[in-house]
Write a structure and sequence with these properties.
mainly alpha, 38% helix
Length: 99
């Protein structure tokens, strides 16, 4: 984008041109993903143990939330019986509810 701005004479110099970006390294080992049975057993165990992060685990494994989104989910925001999630997107509840 800065190169286009230089070409169109919007700016005099591309200040980012001296920056060298390293190529993305591939992981040497492939990460093993859980099967649906393993994920189900994990969620059952977390629920039975009254894990304070259970709501976040459900968000990640069932709803597909990313880690930052899961951090914003509080226990009061997920109603499993009604199948509803009320989410504000704030990470303030993570440290308070998940030790």
């Amino acid at each position: 984008m800065l190169g286009c701005a230089v070409a169109e004479e919007e700016i005099d110099k591309n200040v980012a041109s001296p920056v060298k970006v390293r190529p993305v390294r591939k992981h040497k080992t492939q990460r093993r993903r859980w099967s649906s049975e393993e994920a189900r057993r994990f969620l059952e165990s977390a629920r039975e143990d009254d894990d304070p992060c259970y709501v976040r685990y459900v968000g990640v494994l069932v709803l597909g939330l990313r880690s930052g989104e899961a951090l914003g989910v509080g226990e009061s925001e997920l109603d499993l019986e009604a199948g509803q999630l009320g989410w504000r997107g704030s990470s303030s509840g993570w440290a308070r509810n998940c030790r």
